[in-house]
Design a protein that fits this description.
Blueprint (H helix, E strand, L loop, with lengths): L14 H7 L9 E8 L5 E3 L7 E4 H13 L4 E6 L17 H12 L4 E6 L13 E2 L2 E2 L1 H18 L3 E4 L6 H11 L8 E6 L6 H6 L20 H13 L3 E5 L5 H10 L4 E5 L1 H12 L5 H15 L3 E4 L2 H6 L2
Parallel strand pairs: 1-3, 1-4, 1-12, 4-5, 5-8, 9-10, 10-11, 11-12
Antiparallel strand pairs: 2-3, 6-7
The protein binds ligand PBG.
The site of ligand PBG has 11 residues, from loops.
Length: 322
């Protein structure tokens, strides 16, 4: 039925009509807020390349987590910046490490808020790579053993959801087995399954103090040119026991989010990463873009592509204005 009988504008006439027919809505339930934990107390350092994002000590992180829960956000994602770093990243599985202390403090402050923990070694190693080294080679299986220890230590501290971000082969299987052996068979895994080697992580490396001291992460993170390979990575992680799979970054990989969603039945998460956040903040500060509208539009696009969970540094802002 062509024009003049068909007039799509009829359903766009006013906001109430548009609300009635809107296909995609983003609300607090869709969001997860990343938080950076540092040692000490009363500490709040703004990350220079991420205005509005702070490294916080355990006490402050617990307060922010409480605010997130009050705004209706179901989960926070914890990253730790340890007191000291070494070649193996041993602070990562220390039961009194910053993430472990923060997990416990948050569970006390807001017991129903889900604490998700990022499991990786790059924030804990003095060389900044996501695994242990032999010369300049990142060792796979040896790293998986350590990640499994880290995951168990997080679960012991109260983590509700474990999120490995290292991209070693087989790590989901190692972690699942270790969690099960230690009585944490009910703690799910959200794997960073399709994690690309991206320039969009630049500001995060300031926030987490985790820039690699030599080379780059191309030998473990995925080549941005590859979409089919993402499906293989997701399949492997699901076979090894992942409960939720993630695509990361988000906006430059909407096609990947969509094909993962089409292909698999599990919940799909997408991470709107540090660079995506900083670009919007920088442009908004210059008066070049309307921050609120850009944030709503990009989050809507990420959800429209198929994401069930969106991890974003804008989560608290968005949830508080809903
Ligand atoms: C750790 C990790 C990174 C991010 C999440 N977990 C950094 C990296 O892989 O270099 C990036 C998050 C962001 O940019 O917001 N492996």
């Amino acid at each position: 039925m062509p024009f003049p009988d068909q007039r799509p504008r009829r359903l766009r006439r006013n906001e109430t009509m548009r609300r009635l027919v809107r296909e995609t809505r983003v609300g607090p339930d869709d969001l997860m807020l990343p938080l950076f934990v540092v040692p000490g107390s009363g500490v709040e350092n703004e990350v220079s390349s991420m205005p509005g994002v702070f490294q916080q000590s355990v006490d402050r992180v617990a307060e922010t987590a409480q605010r997130a829960f009050d705004a209706g956000i179901p989960s926070v994602l914890l990253f730790g910046i340890p007191e000291s770093k070494d070649a193996r990243g041993s602070e990562a599985w220390s039961d009194d490490g910053v993430v472990q202390l923060a997990a416990a403090a948050i569970k006390k402050a807001a017991p129903d808020l889900l604490v998700t923990t990022d499991v990786c070694l790059c924030e804990y190693t003095d060389h900044g790579h996501c695994g242990v080294l032999d010369g300049e080679v990142v060792l796979n299986d040896e790293t998986c053993e350590l990640l499994a220890k880290e995951a168990v230590s997080h679960a012991r501290a109260g983590a509700d959801l474990i999120a490995p971000s290292d991209m070693m082969d087989g790590r989901i299987g190692f972690i699942r087995e270790a969690l099960d052996e230690n009585g944490f068979q009910d703690v799910p895994i959200m794997s960073y399954a399709a994690k690309y080697c991206s320039a969009f992580y630049g500001p995060f490396r300031d926030a987490a103090d985790s820039a690699p001291q030599f080379g780059d992460r191309r030998s473990y993170q995925m080549d941005p040119a590859n979409a089919r390979e993402a499906l293989t990575e997701v399949q492997l992680d699901l076979d090894e026991g992942a409960d939720i799979v993630m695509v990361k970054p988000a906006l430059a990989y909407l096609d990947v989010i969509q094909s993962v969603k089409d292909e698999f039945d599990c919940p799909v998460a997408a991470y709107q990463v540090s660079g995506e956040y900083s670009m919007v903040k920088a442009a908004a500060r210059n008066g070049w873009l309307d921050e609120t509208r850009i944030v709503d539009e990009t989050l809507t696009a990420i959800k429209r592509a198929g994401a069930d969970i969106i991890i974003t540094y804008f989560a608290l802002d968005v949830a508080q204005r809903r």
